[in-house]
Amino acid sequence: MATYVVMEPPRLRERADTTAFIRDGFSWLGFLVPPLWLVWNRLWIEAGLTFVVMGLLSMLGEKLGLGLAGSLLSLLVSFYVGLEGQGSRIAALRRRGWHEWGVVEAGGLDDADTRYALEAEALSDDVPPPPRIVPDAALARPAQMGMALGLTHIPGKP
Question: Is the pTM for the entire model greater than 0.85?
């Protein structure tokens, strides 16, 4: 069984049409072709950084005559994208205002959609939504102005 993170769009009326299901796990395409996989998933900054880092590692390996070591360093970048690519997709959706509905375990994407629809319908019957695990930046207290000395300064206290 695979685990899918269910992300809902910021506007409630679009919820049924555009809910995103992101499979939590290793991404083989992200491992094999990292920059292309990142571009396909609209992670533009991450794709550019990956392309630049892989290019620099390749040039550094060629210039210093590292050969196999340069290729292994580039392979580490690919391995990182394979492991953390799905987490980057979730983080990008959060930055765009999407929120995490929850996690669904299912055998495939269609089963995950069905389970989400059934659970969302059951939760809509006068049950308050579960508490957010990740704090929302909009709910953070405003920045305190004043002089700060070190890490222990508390504004408003002498």
Answer: no
Over range 110-135, report the average pLDDT. 74
pLDDT in tens, 61-79: 888 887 788 788 889 999 9
Q: Please, are residues 115 and 47 in contact by the beta-carbon 8 Å criterion?
A: no
86 vs 22: CA distance, rounded Å: 7
Instruction: Name the phi and psi angles at 7, rounded to 5.
Output: -110, 130
Q: Compute the distance between CA of residue 4 and CA of residue 114 in angstroms, rounded to an integer.
A: 12
Q: What is the DSSP string of the chain?
A: -EEEEEEE-SSGGGHHHH-EEEEES--HHHHHSHHHHHHHTT-HHHHHHHHHHHHHHHHHHHHHT-THHHHHHHHHHHHHHHHHHHHHHHHHHHHTT-EEEEEEEESSHHHHHHHHHHHHHHHTTT-PPPPPSSPPGGGSPPPPPS---TT---TT--
**Cα 148 to chain center, whole Å?**
33
Sign of CA dihedral 133, 137, 139, 144: positive
Determine the length of the chain.
Answer: 158
